[in-house]
């Protein structure tokens, strides 16, 4: 049997700005671009760790105090929190919990996981910084 | 399940785990290291946060490795996929190759630097 399909598959061609035509698509793209900030912060931090490991602690601390890096970190925190909220909401959509006749709503998963995020963050601060 | 499909399932599974790590652990690390310490905000003390975390030998080193490696995997994996959606679909294979290279080198580098800083990590606490 020939591998050639009897009818060619139609693939709609999309330009690079396709996601600007619809609010949902734009929201989707902002959500996907949170990964840029997650990845770049991780790479910057790996570089800082390399400075720590090689004994150049002063250079690492100077890099942390660089105004450009601080500004990027503020943006990275905002985008990471946006990633967290969309991820938590998604959990509620993908895996709703059934309790008797009621099923949990996505916003309930969002709320519960935000509380969990605050508890974990506070625990990290208490264990590593305050003690 | 075919081998390629199984590999895809594993890669997407790790991506999902990285998504949880980036959501639950990364915000506090960004705040402590990148904002609170340089701007002198709560709760940072005289010691910088990275040293403070690494001084808690095993748990501190593990926390940094899991947070950085998980976030890097998630971020790069998702970003290379995003680039294919904004006009770079033709470069999909090249983007994947570069992405996996950055992930592997980044995770290896994180492990090596953390072990250099804390060589006694594998000894019992």
CATH topology of chain B: 3 helical TM bundles of succinate and fumarate reductases
Strand content of chain B: under 5%
Average pLDDT value of chain B? 93
Distance between the termini of chain B: 42 Å
CATH superfamily of chain A: Fumarate reductase/succinate dehydrogenase, transmembrane subunit
* Uncertain runs of chain A: none
In CATH, the architecture of chain A is Up-down Bundle
- Listing every helix as H and every strand as E from the N terminus to the C terminus, the arrangement of chain B reads HHHHH
Whole-number average pLDDT of chain A?
A: 92
Question: Keywords, please?
Answer:
heterodimer; A: 131 residues; mainly alpha; 3 helical TM bundles of succinate and fumarate reductases; two-stranded antiparallel sheet; 4 helices; 70% helix; B: 125 residues; 5 helices; 0% strand; globular
Structure report:
The complex is a heterodimer of chains A (131) and B (125). Chain A has 131 residues and is mainly α. Chain A has one domain: Up-down Bundle (3 helical TM bundles of succinate and fumarate reductases). Chain A has four helices and two strands; from the N terminus they run αααββα. Chain A has a two-stranded antiparallel sheet with strand order 1-2. In chain A, α1 runs antiparallel to α2, α1 (23-53) crosses α3 and α3 (67-94) packs across α4. The longest helix of chain A is centred in the first third of the chain and has 31 residues, at 23-53. The N and C termini of chain A lie far apart (71 Å). With 125 residues, chain B is mostly helical. Chain B has one domain: Fumarate reductase/succinate dehydrogenase, transmembrane subunit (3 helical TM bundles of succinate and fumarate reductases). In chain B, 77% of the residues lie in helices and 0% in strands. Chain B contains five helices and no strands. Chain B has helices at residues 3-24, 26-39, 49-54, 57-84, 92-117. In chain B, α1 (3-24) packs across α4 and α4 (57-84) packs antiparallel against α5. The longest helix of chain B has 28 residues, at 57-84. The N and C termini of chain B lie far apart (42 Å). The model of chain B has no long low-confidence stretch (mean pLDDT 93). Classes of the chains: A mainly alpha (131), B mainly alpha (125). Chains A and B meet through α1, α2, α3 and α4 of A and α1, α2, α3, α4 and α5 of B.
């Amino acid at each position: 049997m020939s591998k050639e399909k009897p009818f060619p598959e139609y693939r709609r061609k999309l330009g690079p700005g396709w996601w600007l035509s619809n609010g949902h698509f734009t929201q989707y793209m902002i959500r996907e671009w949170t990964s840029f900030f997650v990845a770049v912060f991780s790479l910057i931090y790996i570089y800082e760790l390399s400075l720590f490991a090689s004994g150049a602690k002063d250079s690492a601390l100077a890099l942390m105090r660089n105004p450009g890096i601080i500004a990027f970190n503020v943006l990275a925190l905002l985008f990471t929190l946006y990633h967290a909220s969309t991820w938590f909401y998604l959990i509620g959509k993908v895996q709703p919990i059934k309790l008797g006749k009621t099923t949990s709503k996505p916003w309930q998963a969002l709320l519960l996981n935000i509380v969990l995020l605050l508890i974990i963050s506070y625990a990290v601060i208490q264990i590593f910084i305050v003690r | 399940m075919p081998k390629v499909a199984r590999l895809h399932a594993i890669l997407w599974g790790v991506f999902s785990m990285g998504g949880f790590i980036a959501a639950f652990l990364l915000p506090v690390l960004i705040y402590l290291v990148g904002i609170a310490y340089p701007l002198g905000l709560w709760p940072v003390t005289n010691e910088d946060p990275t040293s403070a975390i690494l001084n808690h030998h095993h748990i501190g080193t593990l926390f940094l490795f899991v947070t950085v490696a998980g976030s890097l995997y998630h971020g790069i994996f998702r970003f290379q996929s995003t680039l294919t959606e904004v006009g770079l679909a033709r470069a999909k294979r090249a983007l994947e190759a570069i992405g996996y290279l950055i992930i592997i080198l980044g995770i290896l580098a994180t492990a090596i630097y953390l072990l250099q800083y804390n060589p006694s990590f594998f000894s019992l606490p």
